[in-house]
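Final report, closing paragraph on structural work. Over the funding period we assembled a curated collection of sequence-structure pairs, and we close with a single example.
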Amino acid sequence: MEEPLGEHCIIDLYDCRGDILDNLEDIQSTMLEAARIAGATVIDRRFHKFSPQGVTGVVVIAESHLSIHTWPELNYAALDLFTCNLRMKMESVFTLLESRFSPGSMDVRRIPRGILDLERRRNIEVEKLDRALV
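Its predicted structure, as stored:
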């Protein structure tokens, strides 16, 4: 059976503390730690603090990327983790994100990418994990 070329994780963090989502240094540190614990090779990083609030950033890894965009005024963060290394420790990254951002709930969608076999691609379902952390 053909393995996908990569995995794309789409993560929504709800009901986070706004001050955490507006802290550029903490967000950058968390994203770099996520890359490290996943087993990724960091190539570059770029983060930006918006005025009056919000942070966006990307960590470029040899295996692809990790990105984040925050809305502190809505207590929400959107993350995008893509890797072509299927042995990366994504569950450890999810645990880190829960620990650092303390979301009320976390929605994770894991999408296999690069399935070249057309029939298999048509039949695959996206795994969705809802984590209620109340």
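Residues 1-15+34-105 form a domain with the S-adenosylmethionine decarboxylase fold (CATH 3.60.90.10). The longest strand covers residues 6-14. We thank the funder for supporting this effort.
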